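Hi L., both proteins are below.
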Amino acid sequence: MRKSPRPRSTTRSTPRRELLRIDGRHVAVTMRLNPRARRLIVKVHPSTGEVSVIAPSSRSLAHALDFARKEMDWIAKRLADVPEPVSFGIGAQVPFRGEIHAVTPGEGGPAPVWIEREGDVSAIRITGRSEHAPRRLLDFLKREARKALDARVQEYAGRIGVKPKRITIRDTASRWGSCSTTRALSFSWRLILAPPFALDYVVAHEVAHLRHMNHGPHFWKLVREFVGDVATPQAWLDENGPCLHRYAPPPKAG
């Protein structure tokens, strides 16, 4: 993310899109007005590769494409890091709790979607028509994420006698978790794709903010009391986290 000096703010407007030639190909750049922004900001979505420029005022919005042109080298580097997308369709290979599972059709199982293991082979079995599989798989992963995250939050929060105002599961591009000043916790459902130690660390990090709304020594002491090792999950998320954004259902999945 790159930033420019802060211009004035005004009202919102309809996003507009222009093409920018980067590394020999045309890249769509979406320009949006957001009065809450402090300055012009260029973003590249880590999973979709969508390029956008956020402007805080109508005056700065008029210069958004020029600002993107100045950042073409940075945009090109970010686009090169965007992993190839993996569809949620039958036949895909999808991680679940850090272990790769084959997505296969199933009949007569205990639920519309379930985990099945035969020896060293793990599979996510999905009933019904193949065109419905992506949505069913996404719903399954979100439910599993909700269960796992709720359980870990309750455990860690219970240890120190705190309680979050609410827990929200989202699909965020820039954060695995967050804790607001109102004590609301938010997590990415994609953590269910990661190994359990990575999910545990993110939950411990955000629950610790319920006690310490900073990253001082007392905060990190509490996180380590929850999970012990923090370096391993941090390193795993830094190295492998961007790849978790490559898994997605088609836009019009049933």
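That was the first. Here is the second:
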Amino acid sequence: MGMIYARSFLKYGLVVSDKLLLVEKSEARRDELSALNIGKVTIPDDVLVQSSDIIILAVKPQDFDELAPILNKVISSNNLVISIMAGITIPFIEQALGTYRMVRAMPNSPAQLGMGITGYSCSDQLSREDILLAENLLSTTGRSIYFKEEHMLNAVTAISGSGPAYFFYIVKYMVEASKQLGIAEHIANNLVMQTMLGAFHVMNEKNKTLDELIEAVSSKGGTTEAAFRVFSEAQLGENLAKGILQACHRAEELAK
């Protein structure tokens, strides 16, 4: 995700490559990043980090405890820090790094295509200018939505952060059903993915509720109704909602 942001910032001219630092503790990974030739590659305790206007924490949450003491020595109140670590709260990061210009964001994987959605919250000490700057940066990968209450990012994580996997899961089983019906896999993939793409555009363009859209495809005694009878008996909708609530619960556990 860090590289996705780096490429987006360069693409939209928000930074030039000789002003972009790619910070990495692993020597092997530093060699890989250097080969990409899109920015200066350095180590976490480089003094150049301290002189940066903006620092993005794009590390795994479980790696933060090891990295925090190093960053604490180079990060100051001059740096605007944007964290995309799942579950790690703003107060925790502030205390670990000794800085209070903090933004916490939760992007999702379609960001790699510029079609992501990012929920974000800010520390109370952030100025309006800082918030607008952060939003401009985050929006290079799609849309962004501000949440005043940081705990709402747990719900964002469960819905849009994990959400692409839910759609991939549904597509997987639609393709499997297609194959059972004798359709070749490559054709099934095209049928299902184009159907999902088309359904999205119908939702996006029509001024109808989801129930109305479902009803428009369903005829009494027809094929769609037969499928929904099975879905209802299996409580598919209820179980999908339960799964999303459980994902939110897990995000809350990580935050503790």
